[in-house]
Amino acid sequence: MKLAPIRGYYPRGGGQVIVHVNPLERGKCLKAVQMLSRGPILRVWGTAFVAGALPIKLAHVMAGRAREVIHRKLHGAGTSIGLDVSALKEPPGKAVATGSGINLFAETGEKCLLGANAVGSPKITPENVAEKAATDLIDHIDRGTCVDTHAQDQTVVLMALASGTSKILSGDLTLHTRSAIYITELLTKVKFKEYDGILECTGIGHASKA
């Protein structure tokens, strides 16, 4: 059976994600990274989407409201960036049940990506859904970090396995990140340092055996 990407919605679920992975060559290690400067915001883009019984009009409302909030904040501060938030109606067979949401991203001059999202609900207006995602993205931008709070904890294991010392401008650590550090230090015996918003770790240089 050939799998295809399908979006699932709470509470039914049933979504499918297809992941393509390029493993390291045998004996190779992940390289340490230095991410200490984010650079200016170059562009913001995203997609507001609906599926099932919901009309495309709701996606257009979310996209429009997100553009308004982001434009007011970034362009109002004298910043000129590309801004493109589109609306999408998931075709039949590409989503399970009925649902909606919005994904937003910001790209920086140093090729950092920041993201935010929000999921629709019958109890929340599409305008408020879009405002939440847009406000979260602006908060990530205002933090001045190289990763957003959602990606922050995902860097921990990679830093621990890499060869060399990694430093990432991460900002205040989330509880998820602190939990990931605690478990990773137990398993690998590495030590993480946190200072001036920077997360640092000298990895174990784990080599691929595949």
Automatic annotation (TrEMBL):
Ranges where the RNA 3'-terminal phosphate cyclase domain occurs: 7-193
Record-linked InterPro entries: RNA3'-term_phos_cycl_insert (IPR013791), RNA3'_phos_cyclase_dom (IPR023797), RNA3'_term_phos_cyc (IPR000228), RNA3'_term_phos_cycl-like_CS (IPR020719), RPTC_insert (IPR036553)
PROSITE patterns: RTC (PS01287)
Any Pfam family the entry gives: RTC
Gene Ontology cellular component annotations, sorted alphabetically: nucleus
GO biological process: RNA processing
All copies of domain RNA 3'-terminal phosphate cyclase insert, residue ranges: 37-141
Domain of life: Eukaryota
GO MF annotations in UniProt: RNA-3'-phosphate cyclase activity
Signal peptide extent: none
PANTHER family listed in its UniProt record: RNA 3' TERMINAL PHOSPHATE CYCLASE, RNA 3'-TERMINAL PHOSPHATE CYCLASE
Protein name, UniProt field: RNA 3'-terminal-phosphate cyclase (ATP)
Organism: Ladona fulva (Scarce chaser dragonfly)
